[in-house]
Amino acid sequence: MAQLKFGSAGVTAKEIDISGPVAQQPVGIPAGIVGTALQGPAFVPVTVGSLSDFYAKFGLTDGKKFGPLAVTEWLRNAGAVTFLRVLGIGDGKKRNQDGSVTAAGFTVGENQPRVNDGLLVGNPYANSGSNSVTGRTFFLGAFMSESAGSTVFSDAGLQGQGSITPGVNTAVPIVRGVMLAPSGVILRLSSSITASLNPASNLVATEQSSQGRIYGAVNLLDAGVAKQDFVLLLNGHQGIDPLYPNVITASFDMTSPNYFANVLNRDPLKYQQAGHLLYASWDVHPATAVVTGSGIVSALSGAGASTAPKPGSEVAAFLTTGSAAYNAGSDVIPNYESFTDRFAHAHSPWVISQKFGGVATNLFKLHALDAGTGISTNFKLSIENIVPSTDPNNRYGSFDLVVRDWNDNDGNLKPLEQWRGMNLDPSSDRYIAQVIGDAHIFYNFDQAEASQKLVVEGNYPNNSNLIRVEVSDDVDNQTVDATALPFGFRGPQHLITSGSAPLTSPSSTQLTTTEALKRVIEAPVPLRKNITQGSGQKLSVNPLLYWGARFEHVTSLTTPNASTLQDKSLAAFAKYFPDFSETQQNVVVGDNAGVPATSQNGELDSDKFCRNGFTLENVKVVTGSTGLADPSKWANAIYVRDGNINIDDSTATRRVKADDFIQANRRFLKYSFFMQGGFDGVNLFDKDESEINNNAVVADMGDSNRGRNDGPSVTAYTKALDIMKNSTNVDVMLLALPGVREPAVTNYAINSVEERFDALFIMDIEQHDSNDDNVISDNQLPSVQLTVDNFRNRALDSSFAAAYFPDVLMPDPNTGTNVFAPPSVAVLGALALNDKLGHPWFAPAGFARGALQTTLEARVQLSKNNMDTLYDVSINPLVAFPGNASAGTNPKGGVVVWGQKTLQAAASALDRVNVRRLLIDIRRQVRDIAQTIIFEPNRDTTLAKFSAAVTPRLQRIQALAGLERFRVIIDSSTTTQADVENNTIRGKIFVQPTKSIEYVALDFVVANNISENG
After folding, report:
1. What domains appear along the chain, each with residue ranges and CATH number?
2. Residue 876: which residues within 8 A CB-CB, separation 6 or more?
3. Which of 30, 52, 503, 888 could form a disulfide with 894 if both were Cys (CB 3.0 to 4.6 A apart)?
């Protein structure tokens, strides 16, 4: 840690703020709940002690996910819960040789898992039906040139030597969108090269019969008004729904009402219905660049065409696929269709040092603790207050890291977390890894199944709720120069679309070169060029602005920092694209400084690609009389993207160096960057699979046509149960999978708690309607008799599970909507209430301890016969009694748990929930005592000590009405000499549980005369 340097006598003081909210420590033994959530780590059990801590870690309830709703009910009256979030893991096995994960994610254009009488059907919105041509990933783009006065492309090296014709400033083919087409649909552009007819509503799409072209016409001028309109053709799409036509007119102009990013479909669940999905889009404001075929389009659009051209039209748009066949690639051609990856976390590029010997060093990178899609656009990162050391005995400087809301702006910061005064000194208590935390906790799916387990890497616990730090080995090993400071970041990952191999590149008589689509490129990452405000005589520095990634559009070249219009392109840069391949060229590459460019793929080095790598050393500053950057001249500072800055004594300018970070300059030397990636690992086009809900589990089990009997949704839950059943890693007394009813999974859960032997499974059962169909929606009303008949056929026999019926209506505490929730959600609330009012060995049923406090009504109003029918097969009824049924305010009304049977078939004390929970509690307490004598001498005195410790525990339970009587025998009569030789002690504990009253039988006798003796 940097030491304070004292001069003359005085008092030096600093502030350390530890007044922030502190997580509430869990109290008691948790319930274990497995389910989906809006955010949070995946396949890592997390124990929290309060609802606010749960919401901070996993997000709010959303009226759809039952796991968080169950957590809410449990924590109303309990002090701890362990939640395990599931995401997509495919088959749960390690990656294939090519890097993909079997059954994970999705493949663009494949038939979706719609089941009709057990058979897969094709896209119902495509004319080709079940014989659909496979859809593809398409890159939509336009030839663009800089607007007058703009340097957006030339700064990035995309003109001149980087243009299609080296040395000539031609237009640049810029990717504006990535589009995914479903099966049966081929995307094309309306063209003026040849006659371009609209696709008929009955057109079956094939490569040979598709209307339109890869190159399309852009209407640049209409009645004297500048436009950037183009026409998208959806060949094979029926287009009969006016909301989803097969001909769409849109614009590349982001200021236009029909801007393509606003017009095209962005909802994955409308993928087939709309005939396309705009997966990502990059905005280009007309102030910086416009669509034009300048230097590329050689003739008027009508030349050689069978129809007359529209005035002002140019062949300036393109829409093309990868050059390889569908769902294929090579060592130089990415497979753009395969997203077959398990869930992933977003991460930042490496933060780098200033150059030493002409080379910058990787210092650290940041990873999101939350897994999944969308996390990368929850927050941005800023580094500020960079302070070089002035202590010759400690050369490490310090810096701050601020985690900011993605939607804030530099003039209105919304910090989510602030980490101040950190350094890169591993021996300091302000070391960045120690301050933020570097613990990486994960389940290692990429091992043989027998070796898969929870793994903890890192040296320091995570103090952040949002990120963890990965420090480079060079920093951790102290081989980096101690004066290194976080000066910038590596270029983010970028798409591989350039070169001679990646994209199809058809020729055109209207273009000057056949190489046009071999230079297609992702737009440059927007970097702030200066930190000024105003213009002309009123130009001044704005100390609030950050260098680095610019999150707002430049809408005016004269006042480039005036706009607060959010640049949504940053979300496209942050988007997940496949990078998992081990045998083929990946769709995106990054963290690859120094990799040479190739003819097949163009520039690969993410720093050099569009000159996207950022460093404060590329800021050109004016120096003052001290030779340091002049604090009064920051309005003249400029970011030079190519880094070509020479010392110029005549203008007193040079690049920023570490010496410039004096106090007067620090507020001007800060920068922002973002994270990329994050993936759910699921099929985002199918509602059930994307939600990993029970319907998806059922579909897995029924979809034998695709060999998915142990499909991805089933596997997600069984792998989660593998983690939860490990009592070494997870301590729970109850287990629930709210909403998951499929027998394959619930049977697996029963086996899991039996293997643990210290937890009770609260089970949701399959429900059947009057047609004996599996109830999969709120529109189906369950039949009690048919539900019972199907449940009886399962022939379950376990005292470690209890089943309940029916579903209940309750309000979601955050959305305010009423939700039909599975029984386990409400029952967990009742169990927590039971333990709060009594003890685990009390019956969690009845008006006193089984009242469902937040339940509004039961889905099925049960009669006495219904209750008898359910109880006969050990299903515990949830019954609505007369009275005030709102929130259980009337203890003699509302919905109540009216039974406490386990699923044990034989009649014994263990066929009741309270007895099983009593035995679980006793076993747990005795086990804890036994842990204290492990490795003690195996002697009579140790046996006596053990017995003496157990007896008072059982006496307490007896006093609290859990036991009628008990007997403990732990002595030489139970531990033989053979046991001693085997380092073992044995004992016997006899217990007689207190039984609860479940039946009241009364004889009412009518008599003429009643005496005192009857």
Report:
1. 31-86+692-914 (3.40.50.11780), 122-321 (no CATH), 376-482 (no CATH)
2. 802, 803, 804, 805, 845, 870, 897, 898, 899, 900, 901, 913
3. 888
